[in-house]
Amino acid sequence: MPKRHRAHWAYRLVPLALIVSLLASGCGRQYTLLHPAGPVGQTELNLLVLASVAMAVVVIPVWILLAVVLVRFRDNPRHKGSYVPQWQKSKFFEVMLFVIPLIIVTIIAVPTVRKTYALDTLPQQKDPVVIHVTSLDWKWMFQYPAQHIATVNYIKIPVGVPVLFKLTADSPMNTFWVPQLGGMEYTMPGEVLPLWLEANKPGVYMGRSGQFSGRGFVHMVFQVDAVSHTVFNQWVHHVKTTAPQMSLAKYHALVHFGYAGEESFSSYPAGTFPTTSHGFTLTGSSPMVMP
Amino acid sequence: MNQILARLFPPQTRRPDEVVIEFGIIFAMLSLVYLLTRLKKWGWLWREWLTSVDHKKIGIMYLVSALLMLFRGGVDALMIRSQLALPNNHLLPVGQYDELFTTHGTIMIFFMAMPFLFALFNVAVPLMIGARDVAFPRLNAVSFWLFAAGAILFNISFVIGGSPNAGWTAYPPLTELRFNPGVGENYYLVSLLIAGIGTTITGINFMTTILRMRAPGMTLMRMPMFVWTVLVTGALIIFAFPPLTIALLLTLLDRLFGSSFFTLGHGGMPMQFVNLFWLFGHPEVYIVVLPAFGIFSEVVPVFSDKKLFGYPAMVGSVLAITILSYIVWVHHFFTMGAGPSVNAFFGVTTMLIAIPTGVKIFNWVLTMWGGRIRFTVAMLWQLAFIPAFLVAGVTGVLLATVPVDYQMHNSYFLIAHFHLALIGGTVFGVLSGMYYWWPKMFGFMLNERQGKWAFWIFVIGFFVTFVPQYMLGFEGMTRRMYTYPPGLGWGALNMVSTIGAFIQGAGFLVLVYNVLWSMRYGERDVTGDPWNGRTLEWSLPSPAPAYNFATIPLVTHRDEWWEMKQSGRANAYKVKSSAIRPVHMPKRSAMPLFMGISFFVLGFGMVFSWWIIAIVGALGVIASLFLSAFDYNDTEELDPQDIRRSEAALGRLEV
């Protein structure tokens, strides 16, 4: 019997050891979610840490309790626990079992609700850069309505300025996700969904899709190049003066099944991005025309 | 002719591995037919199994099917993991990978988890409540054969016509004809519709059985906990399956008849499918996990030799989970722009589920406190469940934290979370239940030593597979990726995960060996009560006779059988000869099987839009309904003399 119990202990340590190694290796740069480069991603990470700690406070004692129970009350003449086959209720425990999880849930729920609203509000201090995002089979098309330029599979954004992405699809659904800047949002045909992100340090961030969209799904990747404001303006100027125009025929070619590299266009045809939608907006800003 | 062949066997289904599997299936079928003919077992198969309406036999048929499907789904998983083991791997063609993760998910949920649970419902519930069968025995057989029709239809897609390839969630417009030509998605839609009818009937059947057929004296609050969970699962099924049926039916109309409910353009609204799907999908999670909770609530008291702690709290938390499970479905698509108010509401309701779930886990631990814990295989699966489900629950709350979900949605963090919940909860639960009720089903025990080997190998493999997947989520890997480039740092963790998957596969093989070995050499269960059980099924011989109880027991306590043993009335199971009355039992019927076959033909015709075949199948369905409706000779009386003889042979007759 005792041999078996040692095995039990070892097994119980496996997940713990793995979690510890996860935390230890969390410093590695490949853990992109743990290295946010913008306020949205930072807020989400902070909430993740808060919730994890709050729950660890309960879960770890439960693991220990379980281990203690298994050792004390195993069916063995030498076991220490007293046998009370009729014990089946205890007011104290039953109330505590209800109250402790309730407290933990409250600790997590309150900031969750507050941050859910906060992240849905575009900061008012600076004018955002607006980018229209359309997912196609299997490439990303980006249009800058203010600058009137378009790109495929990459974007440049200025650092320190909120960027408002308006997301739609002319294809099956995808999600628009730049892990280091913040969470994702769906691109869906017939709808325009808003998402705002901001980079607070220059760098190249990988973006990808989180929703399977057919056999070319793994090609739904793009680069986000966060640069200073002057570099951004220079780039816009460069694209405007040197890149080809996007004709309607070119747009239809893009919609067609296939892959594409990075491309730039000095203009794009009107009507290639829906102007109305079923209408969800960010609170605090009303950028979209309601139907 | 050539055209028909090209539709049945399009070029993309002629991959070498599939040809091997096709020949394997044909060979297995032929040898089965040969064996049955050689041993002259056709009559036996027909009388004892194919036309049986006995809940115990239907349960065993569900169990065998579920184990077969676990094998199929597991092989899919191993192929997925082999493909992902290395960066830039091209072991499988891309199209086949998409088919594999779709069939893996669909089979594991609909054709493995559900029938495995229904197996245990069927085997245990009537015996636990002191009933002779379920409320509607023939409908119970209809449920099984509709499940079988759906499962076979879904599985043949692998070799005939091509498998579905849009994920088990099948979001439109990816399932629309223009993005998804071929018959694969039709298979998905039609087979789930057929199996769904069977599931709905099972829900109604067991709810009625539990509400109407309990032995005298068994009040609701004296029911075993497992029966409670089956009762609420029935309710969940009845309310959760209609939205799925509608969603699937409308998608089928889009594909077969050119309507535009969920299409891209023409006013279609794909998101509405997602809404309907998860309106079913979240209760579905509790449909498969609540009965597992019920199994643990039986296993823990028996192997701790102690009463279940906090029975009223357990009942309350099951009911709370049932109600809450209907108001959390939006957490599957927080990132579809429903706005902060909706997201906050559904985030908080999701977190609230943690409270009743936490109460249950505490109650199991406190049940063990002050007991005498025997580490049998059934108990070990339960003990592995607690840490696994705690991790699953914690990560579930993280995913319910809306802003965190924006980062975790559809990432490997999510994959790890729901595999921990569904394997750690449902699979550990049904395996625990299988080892626990096995002697009651078959009359012999599964070898404990081999069972423990299977357990340890599987559980170690399980954690090795899924803990790295949490970490992959933090590295930004998303689900359903066919391959990934090197340089993202994903390679090592994926390799570890793949190794874990193969360890789990080895664990499954040991389990199969355990079953086969025990069939030949397993210890007979002559007492009918090998575990020192607490509930009524253990007062019966193993396996129970066709009529279950020679006389219906009178229930006075919660753990009736244990109380009887405690008060020295352990001999009370012996039946007085004079007390035996004629027993009214349902007659076996070929109608359910015929109906299953008709539905299969109808479904096959629908999949290929071959309407003549579909109409033939539909006529078969209508004919079997009519034949059954006007069949008044559907019951029989068992002669008390026969019952006396059989009870005497079991040594249970008190003269």
Rg of chain B, Cα atoms, Å: 25 Å
**Per CATH, what is the topology of the largest domain in chain A?**
Immunoglobulin-like
- Give the oligomeric state of the chains in this entry, treating copies of one chain as homo and distinct chains as hetero: heterodimer
Relative strand content of chain A: 15-25%
Number of helices of chain B: 20
Strand order of the largest sheet of chain B: 1-4
The helix/strand series of chain B, from N terminus to C terminus, equals HHHHHHHHHHHHHHHHHEEHHEHE
Question: What does this molecule look like?
Answer:
Chain A is α+β, with helices and mostly antiparallel strands. Chain A folds into 2 domains: 108 residues, no CATH class; 137 residues, Immunoglobulin-like (Sandwich), CATH 2.60.40. Chain A is 37% helix and 21% strand. Chain A has 5 helices and 11 strands. In chain A, strands 8-5-1-2-3-11 form a 6-stranded mixed beta sheet. In chain A, strands 4-10-9 form a 3-stranded mixed beta sheet. Chain A has a two-stranded antiparallel ribbon with strand order 6-7. Chain B has 655 residues and is mainly alpha-helical. Chain B has one domain: Cytochrome C Oxidase, Chain A. In chain B, 67% of the residues lie in helices and 2% in strands. Chain B is built from 20 helices and 4 strands. The longest helix of chain B is centred in the first third of the chain and has 35 residues.
List keywords for this structure.
heterodimer, A: 291 residues, alpha+beta, Immunoglobulin-like, 2 domains, six-stranded mixed sheet, three-stranded mixed sheet, 21% strand, elongated, disordered N terminus, B: 655 residues, mainly alpha, Cytochrome C Oxidase, Chain A, two-stranded parallel ribbon, two-stranded antiparallel sheet, 20 helices, 4 strands, globular
